[in-house]
Each structure stands twice: as C-alpha cells, then as structure tokens.
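Quick start: read one record
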Amino acid sequence: MVMIRESIVMALDNIRSNKVRSFLTLLGIMIGVMAVITLISTVSGVSGTISSSFSSMGVGTLTVSVSGSDLKSGMTPEDLQVITDLENVDGVVPSISLNGRVSYGNDVQTGISVSGRNAYYFILNEEMIIQGRSLNFIDDDNSSYVCEISQEIVDEFFLGVNPIGETLYVSGLPFTIVGRYEEDSGGGVASIFSGSPAVMIPYTTAMKVNNSTDINSFTVYLKEGADSTEAKQEIEDAMDVLFDFEEDCFTVSSMESIEETMNTMTTMLSSLLAGIASIALLVGGIGIMNMMLTTVTERTGEIGLKKALGAVPGQIQMQFLLESFLLSMIGGLLGVVFGLALSFGLCRMLGTSFVLNVGAIILGVGFSAAVGIIFGWAPARKASRLNPIDALRAV
C-alpha cells in the first residue's frame, strides 16, 4: 500500500512538472469522453421528450390501417359500428383523405389537406369549434355537403368575410361552410403523422366524393380505464371475423408499440454515435503511449538508480503504469464535467429535458481508465526491463 501511495505521489509530481505536455496529452482523452457524454446525454434528452409527447398524444387510442383482401377491400360504416360496439371501445373516428383542390369564387388552391371525419370526432373535440357549429350525426347519415374550415382556409379565402354560410368548392363540388375550428387536437397515431386537415367534411360524403365504399384508416378511442392490450386483442378478433380470418388484411397500432420502436431506434443511434466518438479516445490513448515512451527515455537514468538501489521490475512498471492511468483518468473526469455542461446547454437550446445518464458517465470514465492502462502498459513494460548498468550510463 505504501509503495502504491508513493508511486501515485511520484506520478502526480511528474505530471505537474510537465504541465503543458501533460495537458496536451490528456486533451485527446478529454475530448473523447466529452463527445461520448454529450452525444449520449443529448440523444437521451431528445428521445425522452419525444416519447413523452407521443405518450400524451396517444393515450387511450389505437389506430387501425386496413389493406383489405381480394374479397373485402376495406371497412364499411356498418363494420365501424361493429368495432364501436366492442366492450372496451368508446368510439371510432374514420379518416378519409380527398383530393386537395379547393376553390372559392375565382380563387383556386391545390394541395389543401381535406379529410372526412364523423360526428364523434367533434364530440371529442368540442372546444375546437370557434365559430358556427360542428358536424353532427345527421350530416353523417345524410352525407351532407357541409364542411368545417380551419384558420388556414379563412386566411386564404375569407379575410374580412364571415365564412359561415358561404359555399366552398372541394374537388369541384359545393360545400356549405357550417363551422370554423381553431386546431385539430384529436390525437391518435394517424393525426400525429398526417397533421391537422385544413377542411373537414362528413366521412360518408367523403366516400361519395371518392366514389368508394371503403374506409381504410380509423382511430379507435378506448373507454376510460380500458386496458390497451386487451382492447387491441378485442379489436383484432373482431377484425378477423369481418375479414373472414384472412391474413395481413389490417394492422392495429398502439402508441406504446410506436414508442417502443422509437426507443429501440434511439438506443441504436446512441450506441452508433458513442462508437464514433470513441475513436477520439483511441487517438488520445496513442498520445498517452507516445508521452510515456518519451518519459521513459528521459528518465532512463532515474530508472537505473532505482534498480541499483534495489527496486524490482514490478515496482518500476507499477510507477509508470500509475502515471499513465492517472493521466488518462484526469482527462476522463474533465471530459465528464465538460460533456455534462455541453449536453445541458444543448438540451436547453433544443428545448428538451436534460437527462443525467449515469450509464454514459460510467462508460466514459471506464473507457478512459482502460485506455490509460492499455496504452501505458507497453512503456511501463519497457521501463521495467531496462538493464540497470545500461540505464546508469544515461546519468
């Protein structure tokens, strides 16, 4: 123990006596550890914020995508009622996209997002209607040519004009504007990726406009307290019956499964980035080896005197190995401090939460310790094997 303590003191003295050279040598290790800590912590913070957003947006919903079979290409309104009547289901919202050609008077716009929804959607999002009325079940049953418009449409066609009661042409057909909404807060996987539509019409009308009897995408809203796994199985069983147990006709997605996939991807991304950043650690290790070889050459006389006074090769090797280890650890600890500070600043700048990733800290410190030992081994071994007589000639 005394020998180790003395070796540590001597190693620190030697590092202090060559401040500039020691700093430049540990700089490589410090940059490598800082890169590993920064990348892993920042990716963890970003992925945590995204996962939290997804969870809050998709709680209590499942999304069903229907590809159909040779005999049945999609869902019908009657099929939707079968899903609505399931024990864990509170309601179903179909989503039918239309050609985005919208016009008012002589003003024509293309590429406008138009979607067919049902009355249940507006019951869920009653607060989104800021003018007029929402679509109702009568509109669905009668396939009425009425529509809801967003602020985007108001800004495009109705600046300074009350849009309620006006006629908006969607895909060349006249629709009476009955309401204006502020934003789509419906949630669900489909709405998250497709964004808010600019115009919404009854879904039955949308099917007529598309000249289709099929519904290929809808969101299922679960009853409060319903287990999503159990509800998913219940829906899949009902869909199997509707599609006569044909395989690959539909997909039921939950936010949990998407979140799980995202977590897997971010973990892989973190590992990849950490692996790339670790290259800097290897470069830093080569710098340590170079410095230690130089140190052994410079201190050949000192090594010869120690051996002449009775020092065994193991003691010489331990002293130089400790010096290499301490040099690497100092760089690693500085890298941890600067890495955490940098990742905290990046998370603040990106508006995400900062996550103190203990695993990244352990990885960075452990890697720097391993680099110090591995790359310091050869110089220490060389010092321990020096012939005392040859070494004393260097005095």
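The longest helix spans residues 255-298.
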